[in-house]
Hints:
The chain is α/β, with parallel strands linked by helices.
Amino acid sequence: MRILICEDEPDIITILSSSLVAEGYDVESVLTGEDLIERFTRIPPDLVLLDVKLPGINGWELLDWIRAHSNCPVIMLTAYGRIVDKVRGLSRGADDYITKPFKLVEVKARIEAVLRRSTLAEERQPLEIDDVHKVIILRGKEVFVSPKEYALASLLASDPGRVFSREEILSHLWPDNRYATSQDVQKYVYLLRKRVEEDPSHPKLVLTVRGFGYRLANY
Ligand code: CA
């Protein structure tokens, strides 16, 4: 497991990295946000320990950047023990929060817990259906969709991996409408991809099976 530490105090880096290396982690460290972005882009880590107060780009801005680019777990490191900072960090997508001065046993325990959670999340199907609330659950987060998009997603998710023909989708989405065409199916596939794909022009979840129809990727 690769851990990337971003912290401007060299003493803290030394303490953290020596103890994490002793635990068997592969540890890299950077002193600034600019270096974090560069390193993160080149070799994505499995977890980031991120200091809040940094020169230049601060920890909150870096957290936003990481969240815009990846689901990599982030633990914030901060001298602020104020509850408002904790809430701010967690609501912006941090996975946990450690207040300085910290105990190394606490850091290790939090890292293990966060990594365990993220591994479990990865093992689940990325796209699930909440039939009670009529929403899509994408990697654990609710995505609100229109009724037709929901109907399409729930049909595909009823049997992940199975190919559904355009005709099957058509009669599922418009059971009574004789005027709907395969263009309408294409349109809703397009709309659903815009909701659930990181890059809708290179779909990884809602896949086209040329000449047959569509299927949901099964993991
Ligand atoms: Ca600092």
